[in-house]
Write a structure and sequence with these properties.
The complex is a heterodimer of chains A (243) and B (514).
Chain A lengths: L1 E4 L5 H10 L4 E8 L12 E7 L13 E5 L14 E4 L15 E4 L20 E4 L12 E7 L21 E6 L12 E5 L2 H4 L3 H11 L3 H6 L3 E5 L9 E3 L1
Parallel strand pairs in A: 1-2, 2-3, 3-4, 4-5, 5-6, 6-7, 7-8, 8-9
Antiparallel strand pairs in A: 9-11, 10-11
Chain B lengths: L8 E5 L9 H5 L5 E4 L4 E4 L9 H5 L5 E5 L12 H13 L2 E4 L14 E3 L20 E3 L34 E3 L3 E3 L9 H14 L3 E2 L16 E5 L8 H6 L2 E5 L10 E3 L6 H7 L7 E3 L9 H14 L6 E6 L4 H9 L5 E5 L8 E2 H6 L4 H14 L7 E5 L5 H10 L3 E4 L1 H6 L22 H4 L4 H26 L14 E3 L4 H7 L2 E2 L5
Parallel strand pairs in B: 9-19, 10-11, 11-12, 12-15, 15-16, 16-18, 18-19, 20-21
Antiparallel strand pairs in B: 1-4, 2-3, 5-17, 6-20, 7-8, 13-14
The chains are: A alpha/beta (243), B alpha/beta (514).
């Protein structure tokens, strides 16, 4: 395994080293805010000690996996195409923005706009699981994929997600481990308690989360989940008059 | 009962010429024409006609023409017929008016009031038929990149290496045989055959076409060196191979036809390979929100610029495209400092596959003014050569193109003109997805009407003709390299403009000497 001491290293120099190390296992230590780590790299196994900067794993390719021993900043996995990102901590805003494939597992919390604009086509379905809480606008404009928020530290009367979950949602699903309805749910989102059938797509994601962070899969699977789905695949069609 | 809107056009059939072959009926996706067996006559439902001329063109006996209806309201200089009809439509539906292609309103054109110079006697013109004329250009940053470690965009970089040798490494550039490109139109808004025509023509011409934000169909990766790949707020079809495929990556922040708002491809166009290329579920709307939800400042934009540079190994120039709006000069100055290599500005007459009518017709400013003030601002701030400027919306002819270059553009984007070379008749109905010419549709029977080989040839013909015209005009001015025309405002004179307008454009009045 190659190692890189990131202390004082500019993102551009770090990026160059990582591109040269594609296909290898790499450990980065002393990471402190370097942005765009592994951007667009298709095949790399990264273990990061410290705090990576914004846009960690942007456009990440299918053969790559990133593990962070610490928190991550904004736009983790921006437009990620495949592979996996595992954060042993929290992530900032817009984690999983426009994700197209792969899996992001975040042990603790995420900021606003997590999973915004996630997509899917056919059997390529991106998945994002948050162990703690998510901020407002979770899954905004979601077009596909699976988002799950567990709220493991939430009490019975607290919602693990903020306001306006699923605004503009026109595809995909959001699972929330709660019996409470999120605040200010927009009209284009419908909700129900997830059935066993609904959970089929969720189970492997819960298993991955449990395996990564030592949570109890059996209990997680038994819990009650609220499922948010869009009312329509064409939410704005009726807004216009053609002539 | 709905308020009645009388059809805008009437189909006129010359019964003496019509042979009831029903070609018109087979050709019309809007279902205007039908054959009545009882009377053995062709009939037409005028209310469905969009005036695309498909039937007129293909009628074997030339029995058809379309005329504007002379049906009228009581004439009113304030309430035009169109305004009244649009109001009725909205009262019936409660909908936002949706239309397509560029702003058709009679706003003044500055291109039409600019005239070009030519040499006489003292500074002989050059004969382009005999002398070499250079039209090649390179787009990208021409100045050395400021040191990133300092993270200070205003720092002037050291031109020498520590050993005293000159730094010669250039930022990545786009090489074009002439300063013209086909601007962004997504696969989805236009058809596979339209994209095939643009890609092949760009390759033959040594210029670039632009994917728009619909991703790049797998068949078109072969044209990568002549492709600009776009990243927009919907982030459709974006992955490492896509970013790597093109000659440059364009971040779309805005579009001249609809500044400040996003776009959305209706579910009926998001089908089959279009959905696959975008990677969104088939039949669902493909929504590009108004803003990029991770960009609220120049600093945020800088982050996307550098994430794309990192993802492409710093091998591709990054273009940032904006709409021409009131504060365009200050915005462009910020973009130039964001690390972008090229700024593309789209004027208020730029085209679109669908835009709210009121926005298309009323938001934004003319490209001539936007270009002139951005060019002047970047010069004033000493950062003009940090970026190239590309302008579009609406370059209708080589005359507009040449005037834009003289106003300061490094290159121009054309799209409406390119579609017209493919057969578009400007019926402005792209949003209905029923384009009878096979351009702005995904219906297989319509798409196959556009033959990519013929389409390619027409595009190549058009651009070659414009290049000849550029060379003729340059030769007349005594200029043999298009680089020497760029920003050469002394080659322009104004007619019918106020002092303020001339001042804004940085040009003198016709008759005024240099």
């Amino acid at each position: 395994m190659a190692t890189i001491d990131a202390k004082g290293l500019h993102f551009s120099a770090l990026g160059e080293q990582l591109r040269d190390l594609a296909g290898h296992k790499v450990r980065i230590y002393n990471c402190l805010g370097q942005r765009y780590i592994a951007a667009g790299i298709k095949d790399i196994t990264l273990d990061i000690d410290g705090i990576p900067g914004n846009a960690l794993g942007a456009y990440l390719g299918e053969g790559s996996s990133i593990t962070v021993r610490g928190n991550a900043q904004d736009a983790t996995g921006d437009t990620m195409n495949g592979g996996s990102i595992i954060i042993h901590g929290s992530a900032g805003d817009a984690a999983g923005y426009a994700m197209r494939g792969g899996t992001i597992l975040i042990r603790d919390d995420v900021g606003y706009r997590c999973g915004i604009h996630m997509k899917e086509f056919g059997d390529k379905i991106p998945k994002l699981c948050v162990g703690g809480r998510a901020g407002d606008f979770l899954g905004e404009y979601q077009a596909g994929g699976v988002i799950c928020v567990l709220g493991l530290d939430c009490g019975e009367n607290e919602s693990p997600v903020g306001r306006f979950a699923g605004t503009g949602q026109h595809g995909g699903r959001i699972f929330i481990r709660t019996k409470l309805l999120p605040a200010e749910l927009p009209p284009q989102v419908s909700y129900r308690t997830a059935t066993a059938e609904d959970k089929a797509i969720l189970c492997p994601l819960l298993k991955a989360y449990a395996d990564a962070f030592g949570a109890n899969y059996e209990t997680l699977v038994q819990d009650t989940y609220l499922l948010l789905t869009p009312n329509s695949a064409n939410p704005y069609e009726s807004m216009y008059v053609q002539y | 009962m709905d308020l009645y809107v009388y059809p805008e056009f009437e189909v006129v059939r010359n019964e003496k010429k019509c042979i009831c072959c029903q070609a018109c009926s087979r050709q019309c996706a809007n279902l205007v024409h039908s054959y009545d067996e009882a009377t053995d006559c062709m009939e037409a439902d005028d209310s469905k006609c969009v005036n695309c001329h498909r039937c007129v063109t293909l009628c074997p006996t030339k029995a058809l023409k379309i005329v504007k209806s002379d049906h009228t309201f009581r004439p009113n200089a304030n309430w035009s017929q169109a305004t009244i009809n649009e109001l009725y439509l909205q009262a019936n539906s409660g909908g936002v008016l949706l239309s397509s292609m560029g702003n058709p309103q009679p706003h003044p054109s500055y291109f039409d009031r600019l005239l070009l110079n030519a040499s006489q006697v003292t500074n002989p013109s050059i004969d382009p038929l005999r002398e070499p004329m250079e039209t090649k250009v390179f787009l990208g940053r021409k100045t050395p990149v400021p040191p990133l470690e300092a993270n200070n965009t205003t720092a002037v970089p050291e031109p020498y290496n520590p050993d005293g040798t000159l730094k010669t490494e250039m930022s990545p550039q786009i090489e074009l045989s002439m300063p013209l490109m086909f601007s962004a139109m997504s696969y989805g808004s236009i058809s596979y055959n339209a994209h095939a025509s643009l890609a092949r023509a760009a390759t033959q011409l040594g210029i670039c076409y632009n994917t728009g934000e619909g991703g790049l169909h797998k068949d078109f990766y072969q044209y990568g060196p002549n492709t600009i790949v776009q990243v927009a707020s919907g982030r459709f079809g974006i992955h490492a191979d896509y970013l790597d495929a093109g000659a440059a990556v364009e971040i779309k922040m805005g579009q001249g036809a609809k500044p400040g708002i996003g776009g959305h491809l209706p579910g009926k166009k998001n089908v089959g390979q279009v959905a696959q290329t975008r990677m969104t579920p088939e039949g669902s709307d493909a929504i590009s929100p108004a803003p990029h939800h991770d960009i609220y400042s120049i600093e945020d934009l800088r982050q996307l610029v550098y994430s794309l540079k990192e993802a492409t190994g710093n091998r591709k120039p990054i273009i940032v495209k904006i709409a021409a709006v009131h504060n365009v000069a200050a915005i462009a100055s910020g973009i130039a400092r964001s690390g972008a290599d090229i700024i593309a500005i789209d004027g208020f007459r730029g085209g679109t596959g669908a835009a709210p009518t009121r926005i298309r017709d009323n938001v934004g400013i003319p490209i001539e003014l936007a270009l002139a003030c951005v060019d002047a601002r970047l010069r004033d701030e000493g950062i003009r050569d940090d970026v190239s400027l590309v302008v579009g919306g609406s370059i209708r002819s080589s005359a507009d193109w040449i005037k834009a270059i003289a106003l300061g553009a490094d290159a121009c984007y054309i799209a409406t003109g390119a579609l017209m070379a493919l057969g578009c008749h400007l019926c402005r109905s792209c949003h209905t997805a029923l384009c009878n010419w096979g351009i702005a549709t995904q219906r297989p029977d319509l798409v196959k009407r556009l033959n990519p080989e013929i389409g390619t040839q027409h595009l190549v013909n058009l651009v070659h003709a414009w290049q000849h015209e550029l060379k003729e005009v340059m030769g007349g001015m005594g200029i043999n390299s298009v680089e020497a025309l760029r920003g050469n405002r002394l080659m322009l004179r104004a007619v019918g403009m106020t002092k303020e307008e001339m001042n804004m454009l940085g040009v003198k009045m016709a008759g005024e000497s240099a």
